[in-house]
Amino acid sequence: MIFLSALLRKHIYDIEGHKVGVLRDVCVSLYETFPTVTALVITTSTLPGNNDIVVPWSQVDNIEESKIYLNVK
């Protein structure tokens, strides 16, 4: 089991190993008995203005102890 508190502020990397940003929050679906994660909210300083991007859960490749990897660039 993974806890949100353990994932917050983890670095997120794309498929090529470039840092995308850090995890700020997760989106969940409340239409099931046990809510499922549907997306990650990532804070990045590379975008002008609002520094948050929402990445669908389908683009998450792997969650390790200290890093999160996406399966896209």
Short synopsis of the structure:
This protein is mostly beta strands.
Question: How would you characterize the overall build of this protein?
Answer:
A hairpin with a 3-residue loop joins strand 5 (60-63) and strand 6. This protein starts with a helix and ends with a strand. It has a 6-stranded mixed β-sheet with strand order 4-3-2-1-6-5, with no helix packed on it. It is globular and about 35 Å long. It contains 1 helix and 6 strands, in the order αββββββ. Helix content is 5%, strand content 48%. The chain has one domain (4-70): PRC-barrel domain (SH3 type barrels, Roll). The longest helix has 4 residues, at 4-7. With 73 residues, the chain is mainly beta.
Order of strands in the sheet with most strands: 4-3-2-1-6-5
How would a crystallographer describe the biggest sheet?
A: 6 strands, mixed
Strand content: over 45%
Q: Which architecture per CATH?
A: Roll
Helix fraction? Answer: under 10%
Number of strands: 6
Secondary-structure-derived class: mainly beta
Structural shape:
globular
| Radius of gyration computed on alpha carbons | 12 Å
The SSE string, one letter per element, is HEEEEEE
**Low-pLDDT segments:** none
Which fold does the CATH topology refer to?
SH3 type barrels
Terminus-to-terminus distance: 27 Å
- Count of the separate structural domains: 1
